[in-house]
Amino acid sequence: MMKAIVYWLDDRIGFSTTFKPLIEHPVPPTGWDYTLGSAALIAFTVQVVTGVALAFSYVPTPDHAYESLDFITHDAILGNIVRGVHFWGASAMVLLVCAHAAQVFLIGAFKFPREVNWLSGTLLLVFTFGMAFTGQLLRWNQDAYWAVVVGASQAARAPLIGDFLTGILFAGNQVGGATLTRFYATHVFMIPAIIFGLLGLHLYLVIRHGVSEPPVPGVRVDRLTYRQRYEELIHKIGVPFWPDAGWKDVVFALAVGSIVLILAAVLGPRDLGNKADPTVIQAYPRPDWYFLWYFALLALIPAGIEDWFIIGFPLVLGVLFVILPFIAPFGERSPRRRPWAVGVVLVTAFSIGALVEYGSNAPWSPDLSTLTLPPSVTQGLTASQLQGAQSFQQRGCINCHTIAGVGGQRGPELTHIGTSLSSNELTWRILNGGRNMPAYGTTLSPQELANLVDFLGTRTR
Ligand code: HEC
Questions:
Q1: Of ligand 1's atoms, which has the minimum distance to the CA of residue 425?
Q2: What's the 3-state SS for 200-236?
Q3: CA 358–ligand 1 middle distance (angstroms)
Q4: pLDDT digits (tens, 9 = 90+) for 10-22
């Protein structure tokens, strides 16, 4: 009876004719470095599973996003673990995808005939970062919110396409409810769907061209002979993927999974901190580490080229990834014969490490506590104007606006704003905010607002 059912199922599904040959297809004997890709795939699967679990309780609206995560973290059964695994799993996935790309680059597996494997992998890398970026805002806490606002102001400064970019990314001029909805849809529907599709293509290509053989110094890739040599090699020393090679993938994936689980259980997910509030800048707008290096890089380069760099750097990087398999399709694969490839990976890894380190210490947006208006500004003010000057510091205006050389650069300089704007106009600007400026209408008392306007009115030439 049992046998009959199994036979029936197998006949209708075709397991033994289609899937069995797939998982038993011959591969060259490979080392542990070949397990990075499959571990990235497992990490993605874990993200999907924990992400779906989170979506059961998460509410993607500005009023409830933070609260629902707070509930998941503190009250839901195992919620803390699920969020923790999703949080650490994201880091694991980013690390594994990058490590896999580096490994493929080092052993020259992007070369003929696997160029499209590399290109689809490049897209997978891009969309992995897309997941990381969109996921961050969903926390809807201060740090994440401001990190995205900083990202927004940077995107907005990109020449030519800045406005277009922010419009698309943020569904408007400000990071608000519409942005959250857009990020949520992108994070849970759009990018995962794209990743699934790309993974299908990527894995199909791995089967089609076979797993690349570990490189041997002196053996060169050649368009005319490579495929035949690969066939012969597989014929001679090939082993079935499962179980001869696949067990390593299982062991490595289990190890990574255990580390993620332990981190989730011991350290838990990232602290939620305070709920996002566009009118309070008591936050460290630090993105999660996988973007930290880029923010740090932007803080380090000369201000003059920053606008072009913001858009130019990712563009150049993307172009380099795309043209790589076409400028070096043949020749040596072994890293021992490609010292420059080893150099590129080492320098990149070292720079990113150093920049993450720098980024987690250096304030690229001015530090709240140290910013005070200079005495030359506060001298000779009336009591209410002084109050206004104080609000200007406490409300974080100074973080975005410079007066007399002190303050941030995100908004226009206000040193002489009293000359160009009337009190009515000043009031209107502060109440309504603007592009990348929060609206203060709901947080300032009429008196505080009046004092602020009074103070800014004194800033004349
Ligand atoms: C997150 C950064 C940020 C914060 C915080 C911020 N602003 Fe702004 N502010 C901006 C930006 C950006 C603009 C330009 C808006 C536009 O052009 O639509 C702006 C514009 C203005 C203007 C109009 C300037 C002009 O030249 O037209 C005034 C006045 C102003 N802000 C005052 C304030 C005051 C007062 C506060 C604190 C209560 C404050 N801002 C807080 C970013 C900020």
A1: 29
A2: HHHHHHHHHHCCCCCCCCCCEECCCCHHHHHHHHHHH
A3: 29
A4: 999 999 998 898 9
Ligand 1 proximity of 440 Cβ (cutoff 6 Å): yes
pLDDT for 436 equals: 67
Non-local (6+) Cβ contacts of 329 within 8 A are: 111, 112, 115, 221, 223
| Ligand 1 centroid – CA 390 distance (Å) | 16
Is there a single domain that holds both residue 303 and residue 445?
no
Q: Do residue 350 and residue 330 come from a single domain?
A: yes
pLDDT, position 217: 94
Which has the closest alpha carbon to 16: 5, 26, 27, 24?
Answer: 24
- Ligand 1 pocket, 455 CB below 6 A? no
Q: How far does the centroid of ligand 1 lie from the alpha carbon of residue 416, in Å? A: 13
Global confidence as pTM = 0.77
Residues of the chain with pLDDT under 70: 153, 173, 278-286, 303, 362-370, 435-436, 442
Distance 172 CA to ligand 1 centre (A): 17
CATH code for the domain of 434? 1.10.760.10
Domain that holds residue 117: 28-361
Last residue of a domain, one of 302, 326, 361: 361
| Span 324-381, pLDDT tens digits | 999 999 999 999 999 999 999 999 999 999 988 887 775 544 444 567 888 889 888 9
408 and 391 in a single domain? The answer is yes
Question: Tokens 């000057």 map to which residue?
Answer: 389
The answer to whether the CB of 433 is under 6 A from ligand 1 is no
Residue with CA closest to ligand 1 atom 29: 426
DSSP 37: H
Residue with CA nearest ligand 1 atom 43: 437
